[in-house]
Write a structure and sequence with these properties.
The chain has 433 residues and is mainly α. The protein is built from 16 helices and no strands. The chain has helices at residues 10-19, 31-60, 65-95, 105-124, 128-150, 152-156, 162-170, 172-184, 190-211, 227-232, 242-272, 277-309, 313-331, 336-362, 371-401, 407-425. The chain crosses the membrane at residues 33-56, 68-86, 107-126, 132-153, 165-188, 194-212, 248-269, 281-303, 315-333, 339-362, 383-402, 408-427.
């Protein structure tokens, strides 16, 4: 374990790294693979329910399709609010953790164990309220894991190498999506559909905890954790730190466009194309294979090219525009083949976005002493769309159903317009090229 005393002058330390003092320092052996693995494990545990199993779980305990849609919006929306709170709060607390096991490792392992317990409760639940409470527990615990794990990037890797690491870690999302869909095809009951992905996450989190040479605080923070600091974990000053504010808004808008795709895709397939449950699951698997294949091309390539070019903004803008093209094609898809092609295009844009997004974020953080907290605030831009999108989607879908476009087409067009706004606003960030 690497023991580090608190940095006496964090601003000077960060400036030295950016100036090149830390440029020769490489990521520790096994770190990049470990970070990618823990992201994969946690995302498979979180995204498999969002993509497929939660929709069908609620369908199994609901009386009608309309009731299922409303309940899905409720469960995922409220759960995402808990993720919204957990990510920055856990980040701030991990920045202050003085455990002999390190700053991040207790949060990574402990959060995963609690999350698996919540997934098990969902699997056996027979009421929507039990599902809701357990999903809130899962979102809280697993987002605490993500906050602590991703905060290790600025701990372990110098700025000039973060694009490459970010690109590799970004592959965890498409691989997690694919693995989750693949698992669902072989799991026929609700308990297994929730517990098995969770156990995979637990195993990989355990591997990362073993590999990680965690930063360790040898002294307690001078200032006690106060109520003001609690609320401060969720806010930042966009006037004082405008680049951070624009980064947050860009991420929020692009992720909003992306958030509604997977959540309502099972219903889109069953309603518009008349597929049964198993047919829909198989189609989602094929669509995610196409998406993952494109992400595997654009993800690492985007991160490497971004590092070489010394630029982040053009890659984010490009990613957003490509996602918009895919969303529009998805909205008007006349058949399953077109839908799969659209998912591939969205995957190409998403891979490019994820490859550069984390690297860009680490370059606009307001305070080097609060990296996990600030990354947690930024991750709120990931979680908030997952709450807002399911909450407003039923209304937009119902409104669109009375138009020639149709409900789901209207929803995906709306998402495309929001993502386009995010792609354009990235150029308001001035401190990063």
């Amino acid at each position: 374990m690497t023991e580090l005393s608190p940095v006496a002058d964090p601003a000077a330390h960060a400036a030295a790294e950016n100036a090149g003092d830390g440029a020769s320092r490489q990521a520790p052996p096994g770190y990049t693979a470990g970070l990618a693995a823990v992201n994969f494990g946690i995302l498979i545990a979180l995204l498999t329910p969002v993509l497929v199993s939660m929709a069908f779980k609620l369908q199994h305990i609901s009386a009608s399709p309309e009731e299922t849609t409303a309940r899905l919006g409720l469960v995922l929306g409220v759960g995402a609010l808990f993720a919204l709170v957990a990510n920055p709060l856990a980040g701030r607390l991990s920045d202050r953790t003085t455990s002999r096991w390190g700053m991040r490792r207790p949060w990574i392992l402990g959060g995963t164990i609690i999350g698996v317990g919540g997934l098990a409760i969902i699997g056996i639940a027979q009421s929507v309220w039990a599902v809701l409470v357990a999903w809130c527990l899962v979102q809280t615990a697993m987002n605490a894991v993500l906050a602590a794990a991703n905060a290790t990037l600025p701990d372990q890797v110098p700025p000039r190498g973060r694009g490459k690491v970010s690109g590799i870690v970004g592959l965890a999302t498409p691989v997690g999506l694919l693995a989750g869909n693949l698992l669902i095809n072989f799991l026929s009951d609700d308990i297994a559909r929730f517990v098995v992905p969770g156990l995979i996450g637990l195993a990989l989190a355990g591997v990362f905890v073993v590999v990680l040479k965690d930063r360790r605080l040898t002294e307690k923070p001078a200032q006690a954790f106060t109520i003001g600091q609690f609320f401060g974990a969720f806010v930042f000053n966009p006037v004082k730190h405008p680049d951070f504010g624009w980064t947050w808004l860009t991420k929020f808008l692009i992720m909003f466009g992306y958030a509604g795709i997977a959540t309502f895709l099972p219903f889109y397939l069953t309603e518009r194309f008349g597929l049964g449950e198993q047919e829909a699951i198989s189609t989602i698997l094929i669509a995610n294979v196409a998406s993952m294949a494109m992400m595997m091309i654009s993800g690492p390539l985007g991160g490497i090219l971004s590092d070489r070019a010394g630029k982040r903004r053009p890659f984010v803008a490009f990613a957003g525009v490509i996602m918009v093209v895919g969303l529009l094609l998805l909205a008007f898809a006349p058949d399953i083949i077109t839908l799969i092609i659209a998912q591939g295009i969205i995957g190409f844009g998403t891979g490019s976005f994820f490859s550069v997004d984390l690297a860009l974020a680490t370059e606009v953080l307001p305070n080097p002493e609060d990296t996990a907290k600030d990354l947690g605030v930024l991750n709120m831009a990931n979680a908030l769309p997952q709450s807002i999108a399911p909450a407003i989607a039923p209304g937009i879908i119902a409104l669109g159903a009375s138009t020639p476009l149709g409900g789901y087409t209207t929803w995906y067009v709306f998402g495309a317009l929001v993502a386009l706004a995010g792609a354009l606003l990235v150029y308001r960030i001035k401190g990063v090229q």
